[in-house]
Write a structure and sequence with these properties.
The chain is an alpha/beta fold and 351 residues long. The protein has three domains: 185 residues, Rossmann fold, CATH 3.40.50; 72 residues, Helicase, Ruva Protein, domain 3, CATH 1.10.8; 78 residues, Orthogonal Bundle (Arc Repressor Mutant, subunit A). 57% of the residues lie in helices and 9% in strands. A five-stranded parallel beta sheet has the order 2-3-4-1-5, sandwiched between helices. Strands 6-8-7 form a three-stranded antiparallel beta sheet.
Length: 351
């Protein structure tokens, strides 16, 4: 399991999935958006994986049994998770994943799927993006199920990606989660890697960057993968010849920032309540962060305890995270600067 920040995590997850498929493994790729249940997003992908396994002669009977288990799983939980929409190929097998209890049923279902994968000489790999949005009780059920298939040495694996609070959420869901998973954190690129991410593709197209131009982009983007893409696009559009200059970057930066303001940042801002916006504006006034909860409360002239629910909601929405006890930081760089632009002056303090 990985705790990643930014669009780069999705790119990495897709690459991992392609590599797994190239190695002959059976993959299930899902994204966990807000407002969707884990059973709702998992069931269709599991159905497809089991149908593929059922074409393998030595795994056919076990894969069909797992498909009967899936039918029981959907039938038992459809009233609870109304977003489960999946075609059923087999009638349920009584007693298999049909108790109506997510933790128990998901465990039985993944065990049946794992037995089929083992018989086929392959593995089922579940790739889940935005895993931090899975509700805690559903995340707990998933962790318990994976723990069980691991104990039985069945080839079912999870590769998850999400924001840095994912480690804490899994630990809260099940205390043994940190022993069950690895949590490598991948954030911004190093300055050297960030330069290579721009210079190498440009060089393949016959163009070069002046060293000062590359340094300026790295400084502006903080090495954040998606921002590097944005600056690269805009500087490529602006530059008239090679080498790409510092002046080209300065010109492109205005367009890049405007583009981020209109889309990347604005989408996040529009999801916020007025009080959540004020909280983030107070953070922005203190700088990039991280910041102590007490300092943010002082900016808002509020008690720390009264702002606890707001902070928790912002963490849940993926706007901030806690790198240490009592600390709060933005999940993406430059968001502090955006907040200063969109809520200038001191009028935001009234509300």
């Amino acid at each position: 399991m990985v705790g990643l920040r930014g669009v780069g995590k999705t790119v990495l997850l897709d690459q991992f999935a392609r590599d797994a498929e190239g190695a002959g493994l059976h993959t299930m790729r899902i994204e966990a958006p807000e407002g969707r249940s884990l059973p709702g997003i998992l069931a269709p992908e599991l159905r497809k994986a089991l149908i593929r396994l059922s074409t393998v002669e030595r795994a056919r009977d076990l894969a069909r049994r797992a498909l009967r288990g899936l039918a029981g799983f959907v039938g038992a939980l459809k009233a609870t998770y109304e977003d489960i929409q999946v075609g059923l190929d087999f009638k349920p097998e009584p007693g298999l994943a049909d108790a109506g209890d997510l933790e128990h049923d998901l465990q039985s279902l993944l065990e049946a799927a794992g037995e089929a994968a083992k018989a086929a000489g392959t593995a089922l790999v579940l790739f889940v993006d935005e895993l931090q949005y899975v509700p805690e009780d559903e995340l707990a059920a998933l962790i318990t199920s994976l723990h069980r298939v691991g104990q039985r040495q069945l080839p079912v694996v999870l590769v998850g990606a999400g924001l840095p609070q994912l480690r804490g959420r899994t630990g809260k869901a099940k205390s043994y989660a940190e022993r069950l998973f690895d949590f490598p954190e991948v954030g911004s690129l190093s300055p050297e890697d960030a330069r290579d991410a721009l210079a190498k593709p440009a060089r393949s197209e016959g163009a070069e960057f002046e060293p000062e131009a590359l340094s300026r982009i790295v400084e502006e983007t903080h090495g954040y993968p998606y921002f590097l893409q944005e600056w690269g696009k805009h500087v490529w559009d602006v530059a008239q010849s090679s080498p790409i200059t510092f002046h080209d970057v300065e010109t492109a930066s205005m367009a890049a920032v405007a583009s981020l303001d209109e889309s990347f940042f604005r989408v996040r801002f529009d999801r916020l309540t007025p009080l959540e916006r004020r909280y983030l504006r107070a953070m922005a006034g203190l700088g990039p962060g991280p910041h102590r909860s007490g300092d943010i409360a002082d900016e808002l002239d509020r008690k720390v305890t009264s702002l606890g629910p707001v902070r928790s909601k912002l963490i849940e929405k993926g706007m901030v995270w806690s790198p240490g006890h009592g600390d709060t930081a933005f999940t993406v760089p430059l968001f502090d600067e955006f907040m200063l632009r969109i809520m200038p002056g001191d009028d935001w303090r009234v509300g």
